[in-house]
Design a protein that fits this description.
The complex is a heterodimer of chains A (260) and B (252). Helices cover 34% and strands 25% of the residues of chain A. Chain A is built from 9 helices and 10 strands. Chain A is globular, with a radius of gyration of 18 Å. In chain A, a hairpin with a 2-residue loop joins strand 9 and strand 10. In chain A, the strands form 2 sheets. Chain A has a 6-stranded mixed β-sheet, sandwiched between helices. In chain A, strands 2-1-4-5 form a 4-stranded antiparallel β-sheet, with helices on one face. In chain A, helix 6 packs parallel to helix 7. Chain B has 252 residues and is mainly α. Chain B has one domain. In chain B, 85% of the residues lie in helices and 0% in strands. Chain B has 9 helices and no strands. In chain B, helix 4 runs parallel beside helix 8 and helix 4 runs antiparallel to helix 9. The two termini of chain B are 37 Å apart. The chains are: A alpha/beta (260), B mainly alpha (252). Chains A and B meet through helix 2 and helix 3 of A and helix 5 of B.
Chain lengths: 260, 252
């Protein structure tokens, strides 16, 4: 387990307007039949920041990040990741882009027929670089050390606890060093203590790898501990944006309802 | 009529097969996973298919014998049993056993991967799950069913020889000669070709049902079940087509 003291405090500034934009969602709409999940939704993510998209269950948060990574097609608008329009990319270009974008699933989505080592080796072997040849074991050990579970190499996912599975899933995301990490409800289903450990881990990872993170959550503790900026998703639109403290102090009842 | 779920299913499966041919033969090739699937789907079915083929050959011979003796045609038993096994029984039994064992396991495995988001995880890690999971399994069944059929045929014929000799006496040379005298190249060709199609259909249906599974664990059961039912049906439909095509080509 990682000590809390190792994590630096969150930056005081709300956003980083001068920092490079790594992800842009512009006027995106997505519907499933008559259910309009996203309507003209927009946001930008800057390099090095943790942006939390906050919203109620079923508000379309998970749909948003699945659209960002290209798992779901959008109906209208554009999504630009690291300068590339996701909708226009072919299979090969999309696969290449995805090696720079990590995705932590809510269900962890660990390959349950493989050991932890094989889970971590899988993305490495799919993107075999000459520079990494012979270093795979070291990279696996390093990723496991980063998430505080160095002794689970030969265990199966089913033998691990929920929090450990979450950490292994994060290690698998880190093994191809990502520039952006998308977290889909990283603390849902975890006990409060483990959830806080995962929050700390998210911040440690962001500081160590200087990644940008888009975090989908409705866990207010997670939002408070991880967010440098918060975007509120209400009825398919970006209802409000600001730091945790800024949003908490607003008198708007819709926003206030999340902070009660 | 044109909106029927049945036609939608056929259309979906045809597109799925089209994607297999479009993507399956382009690099990158998943040799490692293909070999692993050949082992799992083929090698691990050897005992099942072998035992079934052996029993089928023995039962067929023992059942046929009294009738043939009644008509004084005992010497025709090797020819009749041999040709039946080579042309029909071994391919059909092999395909049905594989549909039951492998079709259901592919359907259940892929649907489990789908509902637990493991297929999505492969996709976001920059791996084409269709090539990695579907193409390898479809190729494995297409390659393995003809090989398993050879085993079922061989053991079926061995059992037939045993069955003939349980209540009579026929030398191996005469038994073999009786079969070969009536066996044509067309018989062998149609048997091999149709088992290739059987294997392809079993892989296609299992993968299609599993890959597009929905509704959580309920979907896993449904995918496994419908993969077996539909693959078994498809084996018979293809067999019927194979008879017609063989007749048209003058192979019978």
């Amino acid at each position: 387990m990682q000590p809390a003291a190792a994590v630096a405090p969150l930056p005081a500034t709300t956003s980083a307007p001068t920092a490079e934009v790594v992800l842009t969602v512009a006027h995106v709409s997505k519907s499933f039949g008559t259910n309009h999940v996203l309507q003209d939704f927009s946001l930008t993510l800057h390099r090095g920041e943790n942006l939390v998209v906050l919203g109620r269950s079923g508000s379309g948060k998970s749909v948003l990040i699945k659209c960002i990574i290209g798992l779901l097609p959008i109906d209208a608008g554009t999504i630009t990741v690291l300068g590339q329009d996701v909708a226009t990319l072919g299979h090969a270009a999309l696969d290449e882009l995805r090696t720079k974008v990590g995705f932590l699933f809510q269900s962890n989505a660990l390959y349950d027929s493989m050991t932890v080592r094989e889970n971590l080796l899988f993305p490495l072997r799919r993107h075999w670089l000459a520079a990494r040849r012979g270093q795979e074991e070291e990279l696996v050990r390093q990723a496991l050390a980063d998430v505080g579970l160095p002794d689970t190499l030969d265990q199966m996912p089913a033998e691990l606890s929920g929090g450990q599975r979450k950490r292994i899933a994060l290690a698998r995301t880190l093994i191809l060093p990502p520039e952006i990490i998308l977290y889909d409800e990283p603390t849902t289903g975890l006990d409060p203590i483990t959830a806080r450990e995962i929050d700390q881990l998210i911040r440690q990872v962001q500081q160590k790898y200087t990644t940008s993170a888009l975090i989908i959550s409705h866990d207010m503790n997670c939002v408070r501990l991880t967010a440098t900026r918060v975007a509120l998703l209400v009825e398919g639109r970006c209802y409000a944006e600001g730091t945790y403290e800024e949003l908490r102090q607003r008198n708007d009842p819709t926003i206030h309802a999340f902070f009660e | 009529m044109f909106n029927s779920p049945f036609l939608a299913e056929i259309g979906g499966m045809t597109r799925f097969a089209g994607r297999f041919f479009r993507e399956g033969f382009r690099p990158r090739y998943e040799w490692r996973e293909l070999l692993s699937q050949c082992y799992v789907l083929g090698y691990q079915s050897l005992t099942l298919v072998g035992v079934t083929g052996f029993i089928m050959g023995l039962v067929l011979t023992l059942r046929l014998r009294p009738t043939m003796v009644q008509f004084g045609a005992e010497s025709w038993i090797p020819t009749m049993v041999g040709l039946t096994i080579i042309r029909e029984m071994a391919p059909i039994i092999t395909a049905l056993m594989v549909a039951g064992k492998v079709g259901s396991s592919i359907g259940a495995e892929l649907s489990s991967l789908r509902v637990t988001e493991q297929i999505d995880a492969m996709e976001v890690s920059g791996t084409n799950p269709f090539k990695y999971l579907v193409v390898t399994r479809m190729l494995a069944t297409t390659l393995m069913v003809p090989i398993l059929n050879l085993l079922a045929t061989g053991l079926g014929l061995a059992a037939a020889y045993l069955g003939v000799n349980l209540k009579g006496g026929t030398s191996l040379a005469l038994f073999t000669h009786n079969i070969l005298a009536r066996l044509t190249f067309g018989d062998l060709l149609s048997a091999v070709v149709k088992t290739v199609f059987f294997g392809f259909a079993i892989g296609l249906i299992g993968c299609y049902k599993g890959y597009y599974a929905t509704n959580g664990t309920e979907g896993v059961g449904r995918a496994a079940n419908s993969a077996v039912v539909m693959a078994s049906m498809m084996v018979f439909i293809l067999d019927l087509l194979a008879v017609q095509v063989s007749n048209l080509l003058g192979l019978n």
